[in-house]
Amino acid sequence: MSSGRTPIGAGGPAPGVGDEAADIAACTLLIVDDNEQNLELLQAYLEDLGCGVLVARDGQEALDQVEKRLPDLVLLDVMMPRMSGFQACARIKGNPATRDIPILMVTALNEVGDVERAVECGADDFLTKPVNRLELLTRVRSQLKIRIVKRQLERTMAELRRLKREG
User: How far apart are CA 13 and CA 8, in angstroms?
Assistant: First the structure.
C-alpha cells in the first residue's frame, strides 16, 4: 500500500547538483614529471576520468602551463630539473590567482619530512611512487569534487551578493 508520497531522492538530483561524472570530465588536469614513462603511465591511469590533460616536464614548465590555462588539479612530481615540485607548488600557492588550484604531489620520496615539506609548500595531497591506480583515481576524483563544489559555492555567493545589491 502506497502513501502517495514520492520517496526521498526519487525525483532526480537536488536542484543545482549536476552529473558528477560530467562535471569531472569537464575538468583539466596538469601532470608534471620529468620522466616520460611516468607521464605516460599517469595519463593512462587518468584516461577513464575523461578530463583534459596538460603535461609539463619540470616546475618552470608547469608554471608556464598554469599561466596559460588554469588547470583544475595539478599532479606534481617533486624531484625535477630547473625547479623542484616543492618550489613550483609554493609559487602556485603563493599567487592569489592560482592558490585555489589543488595540488597532488606524486613522488618517490616517502620520508615523513618530505610529506611535511609538501604540506608546508601548500600541497593538498600526497602520493608515493609507484602509484596505485585505484588510489590515484580516488584522490584525483576527491580533489576535483572539492574544486567543483567550491566553484559552485563561489557562484552561489556571487549571485546572493548580486541579489542583495538589487534588493
Answer: 10
CA 3 vs CA 6, 9, 28, 83: distances in Å: 9, 16, 46, 65
Closest CA to 122 of 90, 80, 146, 91: 90
pLDDT tens over the chain, length 167 residues: 444 433 333 333 443 445 788 899 999 999 999 999 999 999 999 998 999 999 999 999 999 999 999 999 999 999 999 999 999 999 999 999 999 999 999 988 777 788 889 999 999 999 989 999 999 999 999 999 999 999 999 999 999 999 999 97
64-89 exposure pattern, b = at least 16 Cβ within 10 A, e = fewer: ebbeeeebbbbbbbbebeebbbbbbb
d(CA 136, CA 123): 15
Q: How many CB atoms lie within 10 A of CB 7?
A: 7
> Could you tell me the end-to-end alpha-carbon distance of the chain, in angstroms, rounded to an integer?
47
What pTM does this model have? 0.84
Task: Give 133: exposed, middle or buried? Use CB within 10 Å, 0-12, 13-18, 19+.
Answer: middle
